[in-house]
Specification:
single chain, alpha+beta, globular
Length: 290
């Protein structure tokens, strides 16, 4: 029997935010079962925790979607470090992931929050025609703002088409046109990825509000996306040519409100680091019968 916990991430309220399954000790699981277990949980991601390969680090993380293993993802990092903190791990840890060792920290409170920093410049890949992405989202072309930036593919490991919309009404009425989206993926998907999600956002009086769509995976919409939020923060900071601190709301249209805090540092007009912060709360625990 192998223990697991389920946390809601980027929220301080149970049954909101983005669900995450964490297996705090996956050493007894068979390699062939990892993808099956992630599919069984049916969440956007499941994390399997192993001893570190380098004893200087705290743990090694492997992150699975319902269909594949990821090299990195944001909400699994936040949820896992809070889960490990609740199990007695130190508040400051160094996580091993496939792409990098990531320093993380936990802040105690009525509900714990955590942060991690990516010391990496976003990869700005290419523009996408605004009318083409509008068709994919079942919007009119004039629903898309291009004065700040054209819809652009930005990647910190996972590529996202980041597109700014005119208002919250346009954000709420998005509906995926699968035929158009498949064609867009065929034309623009980077070779290093098997799909090209979209991150649509609106500037609000209090910060930003966004929705994340990944219709070519088993997850059509994601209630909180740390990787996409980091890419957005890198894009905004690059456009404004200054470090930023912003708060982003996501998941409201799904009934799973989420809050992601984003900050950046810059040097010579280039983003040098992106920090993602958020809360997480436990909602479930149990044992796998394997």
């Amino acid at each position: 029997m192998t223990d697991y916990v389920v946390y809601n991430v980027f929220t301080d309220t149970q049954f909101e935010g983005n669900p995450l399954a964490v297996i705090p000790d996956a050493t007894k699981l068979n390699e062939d079962d990892l993808q099956k277990i992630a599919k069984q949980f049916n969440y956007s991601e499941t994390v399997f925790v192993y001893p570190p390969k380098d004893p200087k680090n705290t743990v090694n993380l492997r992150i699975f979607t319902q269909t594949k293993e990821l090299s990195f993802a944001g909400h699994p990092i936040i949820g896992t470090i809070i889960a490990l903190s609740d199990l007695g791990y130190p508040d400051d840890m160094n996580l091993e992931t496939e792409i990098a060792n990531i320093p993380v920290s936990v802040t105690s409170g009525e509900v714990k929050s955590a942060s991690f920093t990516i010391n990496k410049t976003p990869n700005f890949i290419e523009n996408v025609d605004y009318a083409e992405i509008a068709k994919c989202l079942s919007l009119l072309p004039n629903n898309i703002i291009t004065k700040n930036h054209s819809p652009h593919i930005v990647s910190l490991g996972i590529p996202f088409i980041i597109v700014e919309l005119i208002d919250l009404y346009a954000l709420a009425k998005i509906g995926m046109n699968m035929e158009a989206y498949i064609e867009l993926n065929r034309r623009h998907r980077p070779r290093f990825s098997d799909r090209l999600p979209t991150y649509a956002y609106v500037r609000t009086e209090t910060g930003f509000q966004a929705r994340a769509f990944d219709p070519l995976s088993n997850l059509v919409e994601d209630p909180a996306s740390g990787n996409a939020a980091a890419a957005l923060g890198g894009l905004i900071s690059t456009l404004e040519k200054k470090p930023i601190q912003i708060t982003l709301a996501q998941g409201l249209e799904m009934g799973r409100p989420s809050r992601i805090d984003i900050s950046t540092t810059m040097q010579d007009d280039k983003v040098t680091s992106i920090t993602i912060s958020g809360a997480a709360i436990k909602v479930m625990q149990g044992q796998l019968a394997v």
